[in-house]
Every structure is written in structure tokens, then in C-alpha cells.
């Protein structure tokens, strides 16, 4: 092949690669505005951070991790979950950083999963730069915008950033990833270290307990609760997360807690429908360890999840989700300037 011909071939390859990138980005954008969510396919087969359980199911793997979710279909589940929580909250964050984000801030999303939040924020606030980290690269480098970076890192081993690096650090739905001691002694100190003085920290979490729960829901939540306790994970997130944050000497006193109530079931309209799907997908994601702990066969566990979906309709079940907002000492704006709201979402 002559030099000219090989140049043309490599140009064509580059063009093809660029087209794939643009197409993937188009798909990704439609995800946010469209309730008919489109999913991006990421090659999950080559990831060494995922291990196979005895049943052949792949689950997250890191020596010190408490996170036991199946990774098959995890990208799709988390993308849908992002849309669900955004709909509950009607926003991507509660921290008073809008002005900073418009002016140009440095933002970190810990446990970013497929990076749905990160990319959505990066597209909204083009002046700011966003970094997503996850110890399992569910994100796709193909999705990178000029102001987004994704990195593979385990927060329990420390994050590869200098002290005082970020204006805003966010962590969403990592409840099953750390025990109480790890949260207080490793995760929060590491987040505080990399947050700038006066910078903001926000956690969004969801309660694992349901109100108006029927017997099957109770069976599943009790099993999950025992499973979490066996790993040292506490359930009372709405008290222990703010306490752990406030216990850090570099965090200002007065952690802001916001709460939303979400009804579960078709009886509660579109959002309730999304809730049943999201929760059922969640039960499926932790099927391998939970069915083992409950001594249930695969089919028996699936039947429980199907019964859960029916039961929430009869019982009109609901659950709570929280956002916890903290500020690192060294600020000019006081945390007491934030307005507290407790809203019921239907
Ligand atoms: C429920 S997902 C939440 C994804 C994303 N934050 C969202 O709100 O859509 C939790 C994510 O945390 C990641 N994770 C769990 N333990 C982690 C750790 N020790 N360090 C970094 N990421 C972790 C998991 O790989 C998973 O992608």
C-alpha cells in the first residue's frame, strides 16, 4: 500500500470513529429529554473489575467493596434510575452552586456509574469542568465532552486528586457501598480533603425501608437490612450521614437535609410506575447475594420481586429519599442561607 493510500485509509477510520462518537452522543442526549429512554451499549465483557459468581453472574469487584450489584444491564438500570431520581427531585442538585457553575467551577461526581448525571451537568454548565469517578468503568470514554473526564478509582483507596481541588463534590446512591466506619473515617475525610475551602459537598440517598409495606416487601427489605447490617452498613441514613458529615472538623456545623417522599405503584401515576420499575430492577441487581442470604432458588426470588410489584399497588407503599448538603470551612456564604423544604412528590 502506498503512503497516499494508507493516509486515506487512516483518515477514513478517523472519520468513521468520529461519526460513531457523534451518533452515541445524540443517543445519549435523547435519554434525558425522552421518557422513552434509549440506552447506550458499552462493551461490558472485558472489564477485569467485574468478577463472576458461582452462578455465572458478574458482580462488582474490589477487595474492600461492600457493593455487590450485578453488572449485567447495570448501565441501563442506572441510566433509568438517574431519570427517575431527577424526576422526583425536579433537579440535579440542591446545593446553592448555580451561580458558581455558571461562572466556571470544578465538579466531581463520585461513583458516577455510566456518568449520566456528570454529562447532563456538563452540557448544562459549559463553563464548568466535570470529573466522574467510579471503580468500575461503567462510563464510556466515547461520551467525553470537552469539559468532562472519567476516571477509574476506588474512593476507599483514596482519590487521585490534590487537596482543595473541587468547588462541588457530589455522591449519589452509594448507600450499599460503605459501612458506617468507612463512611466516617475514609470517604468523608477524602471528600473533604479534595474539596476547596468554602466548597460544597452533596450526598443523595434513598431509604431502603418502605412505608405501608406488605408482607413480601417486608421480607425483601428485612433480608436487605440484615445483609447490610452483616457488612456494617447502617440503615438510618438520614441521621448517620449528617452526623458523620458534621463530625468532621473541617465541615461547617448545620448540615442541610432535604427530603422527598415518593409513592410506589401505578396507582400514583407515571412517577409511581417509574418507582416500581426502578425498585424491581434494584432487587434484581442484588439478586445473587440476596437470594443466597434468603436461601431462595432463582425462580423463588423472581416470584418475590413480581409479588412486590403487585403488593405496592394494593398497599399504596412509599419511600423517602434525601439530599444532604455540607460546606467545607473557609466559606463566605453560610449554610444557614439555604432554604429547607420538605415536599411530597406524587
Ligand atoms: C447505585 S450506583 C450510582 C450511580 C450514580 N451515582 C447515579 O446516581 O446514577 C453506585 C455506583 O457507585 C460505584 N461504587 C461503589 N463503590 C465504589 C467505590 N468504593 N469507589 C468508587 N465507586 C464506587 C459503583 O460501581 C456504582 O457504579
* Main β sheet profile: 8 strands, mixed
Chain-averaged pLDDT: 81
The CATH architecture name of the largest domain reads: 3-Layer(aba) Sandwich
* Protein structure class: alpha/beta
- Per CATH, the class of the largest domain reads Alpha Beta
Distance between the termini: 65 Å
| C-alpha Rg (nearest Å) | 21 Å
Which cofactors or ions or other ligands sit in this model?
S-adenosylmethionine
Q: Enumerate how many helices there are, as a single number.
A: 10
Helix content: 40-55%
Task: Describe this protein with a few key phrases.
346 residues, alpha/beta, Rossmann fold, 2 domains, eight-stranded mixed β-sheet, two-stranded antiparallel ribbon, 10 strands, 18% strand, globular, binds S-adenosylmethionine, methyltransferase activity
Could you describe the 3D structure shown?
- With 346 residues, this protein is α/β, with parallel strands linked by helices.
- The protein has two domains: 1-38; 50-345, Rossmann fold (3-Layer(aba) Sandwich).
- Helices cover 42% and strands 18% of the residues.
- It contains ten helices and ten strands.
- It has helices spanning 3-33, 74-89, 98-103, 116-124, 180-194, 215-230, 237-246, 269-285, 287-293, 298-315; strands at 50-52, 58-60, 106-110, 129-134, 148-152, 166-172, 195-206, 256-263, 318-327, 342-345.
- The strands form two sheets. It has an eight-stranded mixed sheet, with helices on both faces. A two-stranded antiparallel sheet has the order 1-2.
- It is globular and about 50 Å long.
- Residues 27-58 and 333-340 have low confidence and may be disordered.
- The structure holds S-adenosylmethionine.
Amino acid at each position: 500500500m502506498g503512503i497516499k493510500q494508507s493516509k486515506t485509509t487512516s483518515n477514513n477510520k478517523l472519520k468513521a470513529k468520529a461519526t460513531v462518537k457523534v451518533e452515541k452522543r445524540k443517543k445519549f442526549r435523547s435519554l434525558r429529554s425522552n421518557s422513552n429512554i434509549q440506552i447506550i451499549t458499552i462493551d461490558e465483557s472485558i472489564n477485569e473489575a467485574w468478577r463472576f459468581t458461582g452462578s455465572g453472574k458478574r458482580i462488582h469487584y474490589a477487595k474492600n467493596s461492600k457493593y455487590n450489584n450485578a453488572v449485567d444491564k447495570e448501565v441501563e438500570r442506572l441510566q433509568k434510575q438517574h431519570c427517575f431520581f431527577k424526576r422526583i427531585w425536579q433537579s440535579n442538585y440542591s446545593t446553592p452552586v448555580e451561580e458558581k457553575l455558571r461562572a466556571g467551577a470544578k465538579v466531581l461526581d463520585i461513583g458516577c456509574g455510566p456518568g449520566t448525571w456528570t454529562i447532563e451537568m456538563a452540557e448544562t454548565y459549559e463553563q464548568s469542568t466535570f470529573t466522574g469517578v467510579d471503580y468500575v468503568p461503567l462510563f464510556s470514554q466515547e461520551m467525553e465532552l470537552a469539559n468532562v473526564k472519567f476516571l477509574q478509582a476506588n474512593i476507599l483507596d483514596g482519590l487521585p486528586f490534590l487537596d482543595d481541588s473541587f468547588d462541588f463534590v457530589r455522591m449519589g446512591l452509594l448507600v450499599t457501598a460503605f459501612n458506617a466506619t468507612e463512611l466516617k473515617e475514609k470517604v468523608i475525610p477524602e471528600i473533604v480533603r479534595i474539596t476547596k475551602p468554602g466548597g460544597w459537598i452533596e450526598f443523595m440517598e434513598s431509604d431502603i425501608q418502605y412505608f405501608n409495606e406488605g408482607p413480601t416487601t417486608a421480607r425483601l427489605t428485612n433480608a436487605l437490612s440484615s445483609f447490610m447490617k452483616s457488612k456494617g452498613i447502617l440503615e438510618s441514613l438520614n441521621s448517620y450521614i449528617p452526623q458523620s458529615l458534621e463530625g468532621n472538623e473541617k465541615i461547617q456545623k448545620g448540615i442541610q437535609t432535604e427530603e422527598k417522599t415518593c409513592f410506589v405503584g401505578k396507582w400514583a401515576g407515571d412517577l409511581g410506575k417509574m418507582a416500581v420499575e426502578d425498585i424491581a430492577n434494584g432487587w434484581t441487581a442484588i439478586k445473587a447475594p440476596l437470594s443466597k442470604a434468603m436461601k431462595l432458588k432463582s425462580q423463588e426470588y423472581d416470584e418475590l420481586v413480581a409479588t412486590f410489584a403487585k403488593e405496592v399497588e394494593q398497599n399504596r407503599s412509599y419511600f423517602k429519599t434525601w439530599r444532604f448538603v455540607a460546606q467545607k470551612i473557609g466559606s463566605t456564604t453560610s449554610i444557614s442561607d439555604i432554604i429547607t423544604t420538605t415536599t411530597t412528590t406524587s
